[in-house]
Automatic annotation (TrEMBL):
SUPFAM superfamilies xref list: P-loop containing nucleoside triphosphate hydrolases (SSF52540)
Coiled coil residues, start to end: 216-295
Superkingdom in the source lineage: Bacteria
GO biological process assignments: double-strand break repair
An example Gene Ontology molecular-function term: ATP hydrolysis activity
Descriptive protein name: Chromosome segregation protein SMC
């Protein structure tokens, strides 16, 4: 069961002289009035009564009274809270009449419910941390956000590297009409050496011809001068003649090959190889660029998976409000961050989160509702009523949208006992209801 305020009686607190209020249990109770009449003093008094000395005003006593402040709050769980006397001593009495203290109140009163503006003024990260505290996924979400940032940086770096490698590969020169692999000069050198060897063999054979010609000449001379050796020498002559014929036959069709083409090829091979190297470098650069692109795609997949895990974690969490989430360590409601939410949406988000901090606390105090127009107030009141939440707020106004009007420290219409902003009624209709007075100012 949530705890709400059934009735509160205040006397000599700040600008309040004597006020009694019975706020509506479900929905919005608006305390209206001009500036400086005591509206905010009502909220400050409630916060002080229920929240303890942390909320005690620096000058709690009404400047125009010598009587110490007196506060009395009756709660829906039967507990009665009082502060009175010179030291504003706290007295907490439960349903059985037993006395208790601030510790009992702290068990079912959420401190931020007494100070919603503190939550609303906090940073985006602080708001998000409070929500994470509620739903209990703070450590997991922090780890996923760390992984998300790391994956994002990895992907960013991989993208930059891929772009650089693509640009580098594009800038490389490519030559058409050259081999795919570097040309080896050794093969050409071997061919050249084979030709030179063949030419050497040809030279040897030519030299052989000359030798035989010389021999024939000598032998002929000897035949002429040495007739006595004619028979022997004739045989030698015949043999030499036959050998000469054979040698001439062997040398007749010989053609020397030119090494000029090979020499030119050797001179051109370095240029060819330069172009081949350039093509190989471009091919390597393109392969590197492709691998870098694959790496980026892998990093992008990791980042998407982490983000999906984070979304799944929040979807599975017990969030206090439908449409509420956390993105980049900030609250998001219906796709909008805090600074893009309407005033009503901000209050709905704030009160939902504050309420969730301690589900036993069924009431919330909200100051400065004049920031809303009547339609927004109506929307806010309807939401509070639907949620079964008691909201007590102040508004600089004396219009009919106000539940009660505070004037010079008193309720303007002393005959009003209970008043509430009816979210289902038009703001132009009177909302104050008369009742027979049951309480006299200055007497509890």
């Amino acid at each position: 069961m949530t705890v709400k305020i059934n009735q509160l009686e205040l006397e000599n607190v700040k600008r309040i002289k004597a006020v009694k209020v019975e706020p509506t249990q479900n929905g919005l109770t608006i305390i209206g009035g001009r500036n400086g009449q005591g509206k905010t003093s009502v909220l400050d008094a409630i916060a002080w009564a229920l929240g303890g000395d942390t909320f005690k005003p620096s000058r709690p006593q009404n400047d125009k009274s010598v009587i110490p402040p007196h506060l009395k709050v009756e709660l829906s769980n039967g507990i009665v809270v009082e502060r009175k006397g010179k030291n504003s001593a706290l007295k907490v009495t439960d349903t059985t009449g037993k006395k208790a203290g601030q510790a009992l109140l702290d068990s079912f009163i959420e401190k931020l419910a007494l100070n919603v503006p503190k939550f609303m003024a906090s940073s985006d990260k602080e708001k998000a941390n409070i929500l994470l505290q509620i739903i209990g996924v703070g450590p997991q979400l922090m780890e996923l956000e760390r992984q998300e940032k790391e994956a994002y940086q990895d992907r960013l770096m991989a993208g930059r590297i891929a772009d650089q490698k693509k640009k580098f590969a594009k800038e490389q020169i490519h030559y058409d009409g050259v081999p795919d692999q570097l040309v080896s000069p050794q093969e050409l050198i071997n061919q050249q050496q084979a030709i030179l060897a063949q030419n050497g063999e040809n030279a040897r054979k030519r030299e052989n011809v000359s030798n035989f010609e010389y021999l024939v000449k000598i032998l002929t001379d000897e035949v002429a001068s040495l007739q006595k050796r004619l028979n022997d020498k004739q045989k030698e002559l015949e043999k030499a003649t036959n050998d000469l014929a054979i040698a001439k036959t062997n040398a007749m069709d010989l053609v020397d090959q030119s090494t000029e083409e090979l020499e030119n090829n050797l001179r051109e091979i370095e240029e060819v190889n330069r172009k081949v190297r350039a093509n190989l470098d471009k091919q390597k650069a393109e392969e590197d660029a492709h691998q870098a692109e694959l790496e980026w795609e892998n990093k992008d997949s990791v980042l998407k998976n982490v983000r999906q895990d984070k979304m799944d974690l929040l979807k599975g969490a017990n969030l206090p409000l439908e449409g509420l989430s956390i993105e980049d360590s900030a609250l998001v409601y219906k796709g909008q961050k805090w600074d893009n939410m309407s005033s009503a949406e901000q209050l709905i988000v704030a009160t939902s989160i504050v309420r969730k901090l301690n589900p036993q606390c069924g009431m919330v105090l909200v100051d400065k509702l004049e920031q809303m127009d009547t339609e927004t107030l109506k929307e806010f009141g309807q939401w509070a009523e639907k949620e079964g939440l008691q909201i007590i707020g102040t508004r600089v106004s004396t219009g009919s949208e106000c539940s009660i009007i505070i004037e010079d420290g008193y309720v303007k219409d002393a005959s009003v006992k209970t008043a509430a902003f009816d979210a289902s009624t038009d703001a132009s209709e009177p909302l104050l209801q008369s009742a027979t007075p049951t309480w006299k100012a200055g007497s509890f």
